[in-house]
Write a structure and sequence with these properties.
mainly alpha, Arc Repressor Mutant, subunit A, elongated, about 200 residues, Tetracycline Repressor, domain 2
Length: about 200
Protein backbone atom coordinates (compact mmCIF):
# COMPACT_ATOMS: atom_id res chain seq x y z
CA UNK A 1 0.00 0.00 0.00
CA UNK A 2 1.34 3.44 -0.91
CA UNK A 3 2.42 5.66 1.95
CA UNK A 4 0.56 8.89 2.57
CA UNK A 5 2.50 11.99 1.59
CA UNK A 6 2.27 13.25 5.20
CA UNK A 7 4.03 10.07 6.39
CA UNK A 8 6.94 11.05 4.16
CA UNK A 9 6.97 14.82 4.61
CA UNK A 10 6.57 14.99 8.40
CA UNK A 11 9.66 12.83 9.13
CA UNK A 12 11.63 14.84 6.57
CA UNK A 13 10.70 18.06 8.39
CA UNK A 14 11.56 16.57 11.79
CA UNK A 15 14.93 15.47 10.40
CA UNK A 16 15.55 19.00 9.11
CA UNK A 17 14.68 20.36 12.57
CA UNK A 18 17.17 17.93 14.12
CA UNK A 19 19.92 19.00 11.72
CA UNK A 20 19.22 22.69 12.25
CA UNK A 21 19.55 22.33 16.03
CA UNK A 22 22.59 20.04 15.81
CA UNK A 23 24.46 22.38 13.48
CA UNK A 24 23.29 25.83 14.57
CA UNK A 25 23.11 25.68 18.36
CA UNK A 26 20.83 24.84 21.25
CA UNK A 27 17.97 27.24 20.56
CA UNK A 28 15.05 25.83 18.63
CA UNK A 29 15.43 27.24 15.11
CA UNK A 30 12.81 29.20 13.21
CA UNK A 31 10.93 27.98 10.15
CA UNK A 32 13.42 29.62 7.79
CA UNK A 33 16.40 27.78 9.29
CA UNK A 34 14.56 24.47 9.17
CA UNK A 35 13.53 25.12 5.56
CA UNK A 36 17.17 25.76 4.59
CA UNK A 37 18.40 22.59 6.29
CA UNK A 38 15.66 20.50 4.71
CA UNK A 39 15.84 22.22 1.33
CA UNK A 40 12.10 22.79 1.45
CA UNK A 41 9.79 25.77 1.68
CA UNK A 42 8.65 27.47 4.85
CA UNK A 43 5.06 27.08 3.61
CA UNK A 44 5.47 23.31 3.36
CA UNK A 45 6.67 23.11 6.96
CA UNK A 46 3.79 25.23 8.22
CA UNK A 47 1.35 23.05 6.27
CA UNK A 48 2.38 19.95 8.22
CA UNK A 49 3.27 21.63 11.51
CA UNK A 50 1.13 24.63 12.35
CA UNK A 51 3.18 25.52 15.43
CA UNK A 52 6.62 24.91 16.91
CA UNK A 53 5.25 22.88 19.83
CA UNK A 54 3.87 20.19 17.51
CA UNK A 55 7.15 20.02 15.64
CA UNK A 56 9.19 19.81 18.86
CA UNK A 57 6.94 17.05 20.24
CA UNK A 58 7.38 15.12 16.98
CA UNK A 59 11.15 15.49 17.39
CA UNK A 60 10.90 14.12 20.97
CA UNK A 61 9.05 11.10 19.59
CA UNK A 62 11.57 10.57 16.79
CA UNK A 63 14.49 10.63 19.24
CA UNK A 64 12.76 8.19 21.58
CA UNK A 65 12.06 5.83 18.67
CA UNK A 66 15.77 5.66 17.83
CA UNK A 67 16.63 4.65 21.41
CA UNK A 68 13.85 2.07 21.49
CA UNK A 69 15.08 0.52 18.26
CA UNK A 70 18.70 0.34 19.47
CA UNK A 71 17.73 -1.14 22.83
CA UNK A 72 15.47 -3.75 21.25
CA UNK A 73 18.34 -4.87 19.01
CA UNK A 74 20.63 -5.12 22.04
CA UNK A 75 18.11 -7.00 24.12
CA UNK A 76 17.34 -9.46 21.34
CA UNK A 77 21.05 -10.20 21.02
CA UNK A 78 21.55 -10.63 24.80
CA UNK A 79 20.53 -13.48 27.04
CA UNK A 80 18.01 -12.84 29.83
CA UNK A 81 20.64 -12.49 32.54
CA UNK A 82 22.42 -9.63 30.74
CA UNK A 83 19.48 -7.37 29.84
CA UNK A 84 20.19 -4.78 32.54
CA UNK A 85 23.87 -4.77 31.61
CA UNK A 86 22.93 -4.16 27.97
CA UNK A 87 20.73 -1.20 28.96
CA UNK A 88 23.46 0.45 31.01
CA UNK A 89 26.30 -0.32 28.60
CA UNK A 90 24.29 1.15 25.73
CA UNK A 91 23.55 4.42 27.51
CA UNK A 92 27.23 4.90 28.33
CA UNK A 93 28.28 4.01 24.77
CA UNK A 94 29.99 0.68 25.41
CA UNK A 95 28.15 -1.15 22.65
CA UNK A 96 29.54 0.85 19.73
CA UNK A 97 31.84 -2.00 18.71
CA UNK A 98 28.75 -4.21 18.46
CA UNK A 99 27.02 -1.78 16.12
CA UNK A 100 24.88 -0.07 18.76
CA UNK A 101 26.39 3.36 19.43
CA UNK A 102 24.53 5.76 21.66
CA UNK A 103 23.07 8.50 19.42
CA UNK A 104 25.07 11.74 19.45
CA UNK A 105 22.00 13.84 20.13
CA UNK A 106 22.91 15.73 23.30
CA UNK A 107 22.78 19.20 21.72
CA UNK A 108 19.30 18.42 20.42
CA UNK A 109 18.12 17.25 23.83
CA UNK A 110 19.65 20.40 25.38
CA UNK A 111 17.50 22.48 23.03
CA UNK A 112 14.37 20.50 23.85
CA UNK A 113 14.96 20.77 27.60
CA UNK A 114 15.49 24.52 27.28
CA UNK A 115 12.35 24.83 25.19
CA UNK A 116 10.41 22.71 27.71
CA UNK A 117 10.69 25.56 30.22
CA UNK A 118 8.22 27.53 28.07
CA UNK A 119 6.27 24.71 26.42
CA UNK A 120 3.85 22.55 28.41
CA UNK A 121 3.53 20.12 25.51
CA UNK A 122 7.27 19.47 25.21
CA UNK A 123 7.76 19.36 28.98
CA UNK A 124 4.97 16.80 29.33
CA UNK A 125 6.29 14.66 26.48
CA UNK A 126 9.85 14.65 27.83
CA UNK A 127 8.64 13.92 31.35
CA UNK A 128 6.55 11.02 30.06
CA UNK A 129 9.49 9.62 28.10
CA UNK A 130 11.94 9.89 30.98
CA UNK A 131 9.36 8.39 33.34
CA UNK A 132 8.97 5.46 30.95
CA UNK A 133 12.75 5.05 30.91
CA UNK A 134 12.79 5.10 34.72
CA UNK A 135 10.06 2.45 34.89
CA UNK A 136 11.76 0.32 32.23
CA UNK A 137 15.03 0.40 34.15
CA UNK A 138 13.18 -0.40 37.38
CA UNK A 139 11.64 -3.42 35.67
CA UNK A 140 15.01 -4.63 34.41
CA UNK A 141 16.52 -4.18 37.88
CA UNK A 142 13.64 -6.19 39.37
CA UNK A 143 14.32 -9.01 36.89
CA UNK A 144 18.05 -9.02 37.70
CA UNK A 145 17.56 -8.54 41.45
CA UNK A 146 14.22 -10.11 42.49
CA UNK A 147 15.26 -9.83 46.13
CA UNK A 148 15.10 -6.02 45.94
CA UNK A 149 11.83 -4.35 46.95
CA UNK A 150 9.91 -2.69 44.11
CA UNK A 151 10.26 0.77 45.65
CA UNK A 152 14.04 0.32 45.68
CA UNK A 153 13.96 -0.62 42.00
CA UNK A 154 11.97 2.52 41.21
CA UNK A 155 14.40 4.69 43.16
CA UNK A 156 17.31 3.14 41.30
CA UNK A 157 15.55 3.70 37.99
CA UNK A 158 15.24 7.39 38.79
CA UNK A 159 18.83 7.72 40.00
CA UNK A 160 20.20 5.97 36.92
CA UNK A 161 18.28 8.35 34.63
CA UNK A 162 19.67 11.33 36.57
CA UNK A 163 23.25 10.03 36.35
CA UNK A 164 22.94 9.26 32.63
CA UNK A 165 21.46 12.63 31.77
CA UNK A 166 23.87 14.58 33.98
CA UNK A 167 26.87 12.65 32.72
CA UNK A 168 26.18 13.41 29.07
CA UNK A 169 25.61 17.09 29.81
CA UNK A 170 29.10 17.20 31.35
CA UNK A 171 30.70 15.31 28.46
CA UNK A 172 28.79 16.56 25.44
CA UNK A 173 27.95 20.10 26.56
CA UNK A 174 30.91 21.04 28.76
CA UNK A 175 33.65 19.01 27.10
CA UNK A 176 34.52 16.61 29.91
CA UNK A 177 36.46 13.55 28.74
CA UNK A 178 34.55 10.48 27.59
CA UNK A 179 36.89 8.58 29.90
CA UNK A 180 34.21 9.43 32.47
CA UNK A 181 31.85 7.09 30.61
CA UNK A 182 33.48 4.22 32.49
CA UNK A 183 33.50 6.09 35.80
CA UNK A 184 29.77 6.80 35.54
CA UNK A 185 28.93 3.31 34.29
CA UNK A 186 30.85 1.60 37.10
CA UNK A 187 29.28 3.91 39.69
CA UNK A 188 25.88 2.50 38.73
CA UNK A 189 27.04 -1.05 39.43
CA UNK A 190 28.17 0.09 42.87
CA UNK A 191 24.92 1.98 43.42
CA UNK A 192 22.83 -1.07 42.51
CA UNK A 193 24.98 -3.25 44.77
CA UNK A 194 24.49 -0.84 47.68
CA UNK A 195 20.72 -1.09 47.26
CA UNK A 196 20.70 -4.87 47.10
CA UNK A 197 22.85 -5.05 50.24
CA UNK A 198 21.37 -2.30 52.39
CA UNK A 199 18.00 -1.09 51.12
CA UNK A 200 15.11 -0.89 53.56
CA UNK A 201 11.69 0.20 52.22
CA UNK A 202 10.32 3.39 53.77
CA UNK A 203 6.90 3.26 55.45
Amino acid sequence: MARKIADIRRPEIVDALYKAIDEDGISLPGYDQIARRGEMSRQLIRHYFGNVDDMAVALCDALAAVYKDCLMKGIIAADESRRLEVFLDFYFNFLSAKGLPKPADDAVYDALFAYASTSDAVRDRLRDQYTLLQMTLAHEIQISHPELHQSGCQELGYLIVVVMYGHWKMVASLGFSEDYNRVSRQSLDRLIASYTENYTPQD
